[in-house]
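Suppose you are handed a protein chain with no further information: no name, no annotation, nothing but its sequence. What can you learn? This example shows the usual starting point.
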Amino acid sequence: MLELTKGDAPLVFPQFENEDKMTVSEICCKCTGCCRYVSVDIKKPRSKDQIDLYVWYLLHRNVQIYIDNDKGWNLLFITPCTKLQGDGKCGIYPTRPKLCKDYSASSCSRTGKDHTHLFMTPDALLGYLEEEKNKKTKKKVSNLKKPTKKKTK
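A reasonable first move is to predict its three-dimensional structure. Written in structure tokens, the prediction is:
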């Protein structure tokens, strides 16, 4: 079971009564989940220094790392937009940034799983990296043990 440290706020999307009868767009307009986090691309860690940096990120509250469906690595900050009003409406809707205008329900984290792995703690990240390292080692050993075919004349 994942343990969050005191002060962590997991990214939670609201559920609605009769949601099964709502369209994706209707859910999108009521949810505001996309207004509650910031996500930026990061590189897959390839060195001990990068891994150490990513561990450092995860030692901070409301910070997560995920691998998206396209195998891209992302740094996630769970922090609401300062213009999100108490009623869930955007306080600067007419002048909101282009990124907000371009956002569509089809890219929503709530209506579809947009990641393959989510790391909320350093241990989760390190465990995943160790598993991946072991898979690569087993694959290399397996390839070395495969008999080679001799050519016949």
